[in-house]
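Chapter summary example.
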Amino acid sequence: MAQAANNAMSGSNGKVQYGASPTDVAHLTKWKRKESNKLADYVSSDTGGATRREAGPDDEEISFSALQPKTQAAEVFKAGQGVDVVLIRDSTVSAVKYTGYVFIESVEENVDVESGKIVSYDVTAKVDGRLTFVPPT
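The structure predicted for these 137 residues follows.
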């Protein structure tokens, strides 16, 4: 998506929402979406010794990081949990969005060693199927 030089896209208002009635991830610091393909490599008598590749199954994963709210007593995300998500690039009405269902692969807590409190966390999730791209309106 091309943007004018003086109107560059910014992620400063991006969001991650989760659940059937979408709730914002509090104190979000960043999110990332990765699309990949498990390519099939092969060499045969017809390739002259060169490695050839064919597209395999598509895969997607997401990750995000957030600061831990002081009032949050329990973990919101748990490894193995399935949840609906919405990824939003910015908070404008016409924002690009991705929606879908993911399974939480890992939750990493970053702890302040002096207080022992969790100060931030990172979540990685695998997409079940494909995320749906919702273009800007």
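To summarize the output: The chain has no helices and ten strands.
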